[in-house]
Amino acid sequence: MTESIHDDNELERLRYPIGRPADAAESTPEQREAWIEEIRRLPDRLEAAIEGLSEEQLDTPYRDGGWTVRQVVHHLADSHMNAYIRLKLTLTEEGPTIKPYAEGDWATEPDASGMAVGASLLILRGLHARWAFLYESLTPEQWERKFYHPESGQWTRLDTQASHYVWHGQHHTAQIATLRERSGW
Predict the structure, then answer these.
(1) I want to staple 117 with a disulfide (CB 3.0 to 4.6 A). Which of 29, 39, 73, 76 is the partner?
(2) Whole-angstrom Cα distance, residue 167 to residue 151?
(3) Could you tell me the residue ranges of all domains in the chain?
(4) What is 30-183's CATH number?
(5) Taking the model in full, what pTM does it have?
């Protein structure tokens, strides 16, 4: 029984090297400024995390049964494009219902499982520049706007979304960094 608990704890550490996301309450202007800076810096941090990796290393799962480093990079582009579209919908529509997507299935498509990561790094650079710029333009009232997620059945405020995607970028970058550390790369 102790071995099972140890295995579960180890799996949790491998899956969530920075911990699970915290539920964000209402935000302060200072928190939002910090989140915007993190959104702006993610492409640099991700690129540093994968710098010098070989094709074989890019095709290594970050944990047993997990996505490869390549899939993680492409997933970040896919996920963050969806998040940016959700932001734009929330700013231009009243309480939109967003469209979920099957991220696990997206990760197995050829563009995520076999393509070079450079294209997704370029997407993330441009996307995050626009995302940070748009966030900087929001009024306090706009940060409170919400979208509805039909899978979770929850309404999400834009400040909560920002907090989550800061965590999301840090989370996946940490998965890569911990793999490199464990593997001695």
Answers:
(1) 73
(2) 20
(3) 30-183
(4) 1.20.120.450
(5) 0.93
